[in-house]
Amino acid sequence: MKNPHLAVLLIATALCTACVQRPPKHFTNEVLNPMTPVKDQGRSQLCWAYAMLAAIETEHLRWGDSVNLSPAYIGKMMEKEPQAPLSGRGMGATLITLIQKYGIVGYDAMRTADTPAPRWVFMLGAEYTPQEFARSVCAPGEYIALTSNGDKPYYQEVDIDLPDNWLHNRFLNIPIDSLLHHTVYAVRRHHGVCWESKGHAMSIVGIAHDDSGQKYFIMKNSWGTNRPHHGLEYLSFRKFRKETLAVEMPEEAYRAYSHKKPTQPPQPCK
What is the Cα–Cα distance from 148 to 52, expressed in whole angstroms? Predict the structure, then answer.
């Protein structure tokens, strides 16, 4: 009599082998915006700071400017906030609030939290306080924070009632399809965009499709360059609809899509 356990083991082994040998999905990049080098957040939980600063950096590259900003400085400034969680977690909107309060410095001036926070920023022969420098890289009101929650009124500002939103920033609540179309519009016009789920945050730097035509956002991650796409990840539009908690983008990009008058209804994004 054949051993049923052996048969199950052979089937499982064959399935595992097939999984291991499956070739990686092939992506064709439609848009890949300029970006600063990929950083590594290490064991910190500052992905939100890395992602939002990366979005600001991409926005400056769109202008023909170049800045490379320090997430470690933001981590250090959080020590001054009594309500900040010990985990170090936050959101892109948290980053905007903190740099308006404490400023920001260049990445080379403070690469790790072990480095003392600089009191001055030197740029092109000029001397700035971190607050002055922050206003030059991210003006007050420059970015809009968006979310999509069907349980709350659309086109009103709402609170995201989660520990990561410990500053209780307000987000404009819009339908998820509208949020997707706004994001596609911003990325195709080379704006810097920060994307957040409940567990992670990355900046969006492009759009791609696979061999079946399914669309993806190209994400700049903060886990270093040792992963298959060397610091980039591909998030399907389907997962965007399912997993998105918040998106931060320039107000200019959001308003431009809101005011444009298409000659035909927008096509559904796959």
Answer: 19
> pTM for this one?
0.88
pLDDT of residue 152: 97
Burial of 55 by CB count in 10 Å (0-12 exposed, 13-18 middle, 19+ buried)?
buried
- Helix ranges (DSSP H) in 112-236: 130-137, 176-188
How far apart are the C-alpha atoms of 202 and 213, rounded to whole Å?
Answer: 23
- Number of residues that this document lists for the chain: 270
- Average pLDDT of the chain? 89
Tell me if 253 sits within 8 A of 184, measured CB to CB: no
Cα dist from 150 to 162, 169, 240, whole Å: 16, 19, 15
The pLDDT value recorded for residue 6 is: 42
- List, for residues 214-243, the tens digit of each pLDDT value: 999 999 999 998 988 899 999 999 999 999
Strands (E), 7-159: 27-32, 121-123, 126-128, 143-147, 156-159
**Which strand (E) or helix (H) includes residue 259?**
helix 251-259
Tell me the average pLDDT across 157-174: 98
> Would you call 61 helix, strand, or coil by DSSP?
helix
